[in-house]
Amino acid sequence: xxxxxxxxxxxxxxxxxxxxxxxxxxxxxxxxxxxxxxxxxxxxxxxxxxxxxxxxxxxxxxxxxxxxxxxxxxxxxxxxxxxxxxxxxxxxxxxxxxxxxxxxxxxxxxxxxxxxxxxxxxxxxxxxxxxxxxxxxxxxxxxxxxxxxxxxxxxxxxxxxxxxxxxxxxxxxxxxxxxxxxxxxxxxxxxxxxxxxxxxxxxxxxxxxxxxxxxxxxxxxxxxxxxxxxxxxxxxxxxxxxxxxxxxxxxxxxxxxxxxxxxxxxxxxxxxxxxxxxxxxxxxxxxxxxxxxxxxxxxxxxxxxxxxxxxxxxxxxxxxxxxxxxxxxxxxxxxxxxxxxxxxxxxxxxxxxxxxxxxxxxxxxxxxxxxxxxxxxxxxxxxxxxxxxxxxxxxxxxxxxxxxxxxxxxxxxxxxxxxxxxxxxxxxxxxxxxxxxxxxxxxxxxxxxxxxxxxxxxxxxxxxxxxxxxxxxxxxxxxxxxxxxxxxxxxxxxxxxxxxxxxxxxxxxxxxxxxxxxxxxxxxxxxxxxxxxxxxxxxxxxxxxxxxxxxxxxxxxxxxxxxxxxxxxxxxxxxxxxxxxxxxxxxxx
Length: 589
Ligand SMILES: Nc1ncnc2c1ncn2[C@@H]1O[C@H](COP(=O)(O)OP(=O)(O)OP(=O)(O)O)[C@@H](O)[C@H]1O
Known about the structure:
Blueprint: H1 2-8, H2 11-30, H3 34-65, E1 67-73, H4 77-88, E2 97-100, E3 110-111, H5 117-123, E4 124-125, E5 131-134, E6 138-144, E7 149-157, E8 172-179, H6 184-201, E9 204-212, E10 221-230, H7 241-255, H8 257-265, E11 272-277, H9 284-294, E12 298-303, H10 311-319, E13 325-330, H11 350-358, E14 366-372, E15 390-393, H12 399-410, H13 414-419, H14 429-442, H15 450-459, H16 464-527, H17 539-560, H18 563-570, H19 578-588
Adenosine-5'-triphosphate is lined by residues 113-115, 237-239, 280-286, 371, 373, 394, 450-451, 454.
């Protein structure tokens, strides 16, 4: 009954009923007029709204005319250092957070020594620690003690629409504002950020990796600080001392400010290029990282073989390098040469690579280290002076390198021996020197890479005597396996070559057939007196036709006589490979 009754009442009726009922009671108990109350509420609301408008207006006026602002975009190497600093200082209100892996701080990941670029992926051991970052578009206030100033921090995502491959949008930007005309607090803050970053990097080498930046349909790429690792001493790279010194001195001189001036006075682009070539596992990457460590440079590693790398992204990455860094470009032979031969899956063209290295957009002040296992496949244009100023050859280990590797592994200081629980009877330095001689005598020279020898030694990390005793058996076994691997590889290569040649022959036959048919048609038209200017053979066509006629002669001869005799007899006159082709044609016919 009650439900039906309420249903029939309208809201206005209820409201007027309440006013009718509550009004007089409020009046009698509180002494307040209901009309007065309503007016007061509306007035408060109006004042509150105007106050907000007023505050925003003043704020925007102050912001426009009486503040200093610095914006840092995510592509700037300073971005991650700044975010780490602010996070460490507790500047962010973490009530609105998002989990994040790469932007704030760096991924403290362990990386296997072997290789960069694509290989690095396999070597990364992701730390499972989840990091939190303040969600974008939040405003934070950070009290910066040294200057007693409050800094407003706004972190924003940047809209997609502004991006294009030549100007990829930064993913994010952080904006720091202080009110007042004095930018000193911001300057001081940035000095502290850089100093803290430098202190952290001291004794470490920072490694940056190229990352695809493709959103909103536009492709792009950016460098991302991946990790830092302790500086690798040049002494741990076992190589001919002269070669090490040569490249080290060259780089040292290049980095001098006077050299920069010298280059610019002569209008030369201030860049230096090195080529490290040789079989896998001989120390090319290790030397590059050790050099970076020695001169306090960061390494910018990239590989041409990653699926998204193309001419544009490569050029973009080269144009966004900082000054004084080492760019490590591995497996440079992947993009082929002027006559193509690009590896499957590689999108970077040879001209694209040349353009990135020393095109107009390429940054100055960087040292480029290119590595390859196949120097013979490189185009001379790529390694001409100016692009490559110094070449270092790496080879399989000789006696000196084998000896050096042994000593490098087993010369351990007392504290490491204690911490790592080395056995008490671990040989002293004199015995290690003797064992190193024995070891080097037993390993055949120029067969194994330093990486292979090092791999064996690491198996007996705490037992050099055993390593020296067992190395012969290991070397024999390895040799057998190596030979088997080489045999299989050769077989595979031969098969691929055969397949390629078969394809080329097929293509040539197809073209020749089309040409014959075309000529026959022309001939027919000529005989019928319908020849047009198109039917006149060009010099090239005449030459092609002559070749075709020759082929047909061979072909008919083959049909009559023994193929081998004819081919051997005519081969002299033939253009390379034609006779052989015809034999195969005949064979398959
Ligand atoms: N000459 C060397 N001195 C010291 N260690 C070496 C040397 N060569 C190789 N190694 C060791 O072998 C491993 C692989 O070396 P590295 O990656 O530098 O070889 P690479 O020549 O760059 O190989 P790839 O051509 O396959 O990239 C590393 O652990 C490195 O320490």
